[in-house]
Design brief:
Layout (H helix, E strand, L loop, with lengths): L4 E2 H14 L1 H11 L8 E9 L4 E2 L5 E5 L3 E6 L5 E6 L1 E2 L11 E5 L11 E8 L5 E8 L4 E3 L6 E3 L4
Parallel strand pairs: 1-7
Antiparallel strand pairs: 2-3, 2-4, 2-8, 4-5, 5-6, 9-10, 10-11, 11-12
Helix pairs in contact: 1-2
Length: about 160
């Protein structure tokens, strides 16, 4: 897969569009959500703060799929925007001396190898996105946006 653009560039593009017309951006995200159906989950990435030794809250969550990524970016709380395309999460993209790096988000490792059968979107009263979940082939879900990324595996 082409590793595409860095997350800061993707965020800047979404941020400008969100302030111009957040409803149109939410509608576009809903229309594009079908593009991930049938894709297998390869990884789930989040930003790790090496100095604090913890996950950085409020940062993008990347659902890495076979052919592209679905990334949820926090806009103005509680809203999110979705980016469909490849995000470059290679260490070489970090600024020298930066303690932040993309890491596999282990709390969601359950989803690796599963197939996405749908995307459930949560909107507020104005129709703006506040959450997104990838629905998996076994009935489990992975929350991509909203309060925090989390895995909701199907009970066996």
């Amino acid at each position: 897969m082409n590793r595409g653009i860095d997350a800061a560039t993707a965020f800047a593009r979404l941020y400008h569009r969100w302030f111009d017309d957040p409803l149109a951006l939410a509608d576009e995200g809903a229309r594009q959500a079908h593009s991930v159906v049938g894709e297998q989950v390869v990884d789930m990435l989040a930003l790790w703060d090496e100095r604090a030794r913890s996950w950085l809250p409020g940062t993008p969550t990347i659902l890495r799929l076979e052919t592209h990524d679905l990334t949820a970016f926090a806009m103005r709380a509680p809203h999110i925007a979705l980016f469909f395309g490849a995000i470059n999460a290679e260490p070489s993209m970090a600024a020298p001396g930066c303690a932040l790096r993309w890491e596999s988000f282990r709390p969601c490792s359950y989803a690796i190898g599963r197939t996405v059968i749908g995307i459930a979107l949560e909107t507020d009263g104005d129709g703006l996105l506040v959450g997104a979940e990838a629905v998996l082939d076994d009935g489990g879900r992975v929350a991509l946006g909203g309060s925090v990324a989390r895995s909701l595996p199907c009970a066996v």
